[in-house]
Amino acid sequence: MPRGRYSLHDPHDHTPLAEEHFQCAPGPSGWRYVSQLTTPSGDHSGSVDLTLDELGRPIRLELHAAGWQVRGAALDGVTWVRADPTGTEATEGNVRAHAFTGTSPAFLVATTRLLRLTPSASATRVRLVAFTDPVLAPRTVDQSWALIDREAHATDNGPLLVDAYQVTALDTGEQHTVHIAGDVVLAAPGVELEDLESPPSSFD
Asked: What domain of life does the UniProt record list for this protein's source (predicted)?
């Protein structure tokens, strides 16, 4: 069960945004990721709880940020309920999309589990609902993912497979690369793995 800490920063000007203390593991249903977020000054700022089924679909999502809360799941596409900090108003949303995304590295791992790309496959298009900080506002995004490289790195626990994905935002054409080993993001725009207490889990 990997435990560790990511630092999150603005991918453009590198302003520190948060630290995400996480643990994740494959389980009977598929995969679960939980984390707590703190501001650069150390104050609690939110949490992520994401469970995938064995096909990589989000069967449970709960996000907290700045008093806002989102609960969602794959249902007729994806469906969610977003509640305001006072708890008096909740709005439901539904989009014909494949899954969710957001600032947490959990969503990068989740997308790779959903797509199950191979190095020889062509790029795959995916529609996601992104919850943007700080108020978890929903926005539908279209991306293209391709697995462009897979390398085995020698470690004390045997070879570690690292996958490099090229991700393209289809509305702007902007591209970036995401490096993932098992269920841990090693590097991505705005994401740095600062600490890892145990090796990534394998999905094989």
From this structure: Bacteria
17: number of CA atoms within 13 Å, CB side?
A: 19
| Cβ-contact 129, 153 below 8 angstroms | no
With contact defined as beta carbons under 8 Å apart, do 85 and 70 qualify? Answer: no
HEC-encoded secondary structure of 39-67: CCCCCEEEEEEEEEECCCCEEEEEEEECC
CA 120, chain centre distance (Å): 24
* pLDDT of 58: 97
Distance CA 101, CA 106 (A): 8
Q: Decide if 24 contacts 106 (C-beta within 8 A).
A: yes
Q: What ranges do the domains of the chain cover?
A: 3-198
Residues 117-161 pLDDT 10s: 999 889 999 999 999 988 999 999 999 999 999 999 888 777 889
- How buried is residue 88: exposed, middle or buried, by Cβ count under 10 Å (0-12/13-18/19+)? exposed
